[in-house]
Amino acid sequence: MNKIYLGIDPGDNGGLVWLDADGTILECQKMPSTPEDVLTALGSYDCENVVCFMEKVGGIPGQGAAASFTFGKGYGELTMALLARGISTTLVTPQKWQKHFNLSGKKGESKTSHKNRIKAWAQQRFPQQKVTLWAADALAIASYGFEMRK
Questions:
Q1: Looking at beta carbons, which pairs linking 29-33 to residues 24 or more positions away fall under 8 Å?
Q2: Cα 7 to Cα 89: distance, rounded to the nearest angstrom
Q3: pLDDT tens across 120-133, in order?
């Protein structure tokens, strides 16, 4: 059975992307809003064949305590759902996958400009997919996992 590469950009504005063994998009979806929906989404494919690459994130500068707690709770639920499904997961920092594709932030670049540059890269790489901001990072993370498979 061929491997399936799952890229996850965690958080409310993130997404889940599955690529097949050829690097073609199987599915691209916005991050589910409930733990039950996350668990269901992660069971979409034969989990024994899924290899996950998930963005490793820490605190977000300027984010308040309540928002940080909410994000951490969601991240923990996502991690537990991956464990429950038996999906092998590799954590990858934003710096690592962005550097791999030459998408690192540039000096003086705004967050919006940086995000739009990642979106444009993902749209070019996957012209058949309408790339949204929520999907862009997940597409890049899945692509990183696909390229690191060897």
A1: 30/134, 30/135, 31/134
A2: 10
A3: 999 999 999 999 99
